[in-house]
Amino acid sequence: MFQRRRDVRGQATTEYILIVVLVAVLSIGIITVFGNQVRDLFRVATDRMAGGDATINPAFAAQAPGLTNQNLSKLKENGN
Asked: Does pTM surpass 0.70?
């Protein structure tokens, strides 16, 4: 009876670890693909909250879709 309870607890721990690893891998992938765009958005938001008049770099904003597609292609090639 006690052996069965320990097996269920071990199974739950293993499932929890798998979920944590999946979230970590997805987070790394998302940051890799969208990191520069998110960084630029936060820079503009914090500067405006501080009273500045920062804008998103138009050249970078124009490149963003192409960079995103390029990064996604690299992820596919690496098998991630």
From this structure: no
CA geometry: angle at 64 spanning 63 and 70, to 5°? 90
Contacts of 37 by beta carbon, 8 Å cutoff, 6+ apart = 64, 68
Tell the residue number behind the tokens 């050249």, with chain if given: 59
Tokens of 44: 């503009």
Look at residue 2 and give its three-state secondary structure.
helix
- Range 17-33 average pLDDT: 92
Length of the chain: 80
DSSP string, 10-75: HHHHHHHHHHHHHHHHHHHHHHHHHHHHHHHHHHHHHHHHTT------HHHHHHHHHHHHHHHHHH
* Interval 19-45 mean pLDDT: 88
